[in-house]
Design goal:
By secondary structure, this protein is of the alpha+beta class. It contains 3 helices and 4 strands.
Length: 113
C-alpha cells in the first residue's frame, strides 16, 4: 500500500547550510517540518578516496505530491555536487500529525480506505 507521507534524509556540510536550506524549503511550502541533527560523522567514498567529515542531517517531513519539487529544490540550492536525497514512505503516522502536515502543505492528500 502506498502512503501519502514521506520522510526525506539530506546531509549538509554544516549547521549554517542546513538552516539556510531548511528555511528555503519551508518558505517554498515543500515540507511541513524539518529536524536538523548537527555534528553527524559521515564516512563515504568520493572520487576514489575514503572521506570522513562532520555534517548536519536534515529530516524532512513532506507529502508524496511535493517529492519531485522538493528533490529539484534540493538539487538546485544544495552546495554538494551530488546531494543526498533519500525518501522513505511513512507507513504509520499519528492522524493528528498528518492533519497538521496537510494544513501546512495545503490541502489534503488522503488514501482511499
Amino acid at each position: 500500500m502506498e502512503t501519502a507521507y514521506y520522510l526525506v534524509l539530506c546531509t549538509c556540510p554544516n549547521q549554517a547550510t542546513a538552516l539556510q536550506i531548511a528555511e528555503e524549503l519551508l518558505g517554498a511550502g515543500l515540507v511541513a517540518c524539518i529536524n536538523i541533527i548537527p555534528n553527524l560523522t559521515s564516512i563515504y567514498s568520493w572520487e576514489g578516496k575514503l572521506i570522513q567529515s562532520e555534517e548536519s542531517l536534515l529530516y524532512l517531513k513532506t507529502r508524496k505530491d511535493k517529492l519531485a519539487d522538493l528533490e529539484q529544490a534540493i538539487l538546485t540550492i544544495h552546495p554538494y555536487k551530488v546531494p543526498e536525497f533519500i525518501a522513505t514512505a511513512i507507513t504509520y503516522c499519528n492522524e493528528n500529525f498528518t492533519y497538521w502536515m496537510d494544513g501546512v502543505l495545503g490541502g489534503a492528500l488522503r488514501e482511499e480506505e
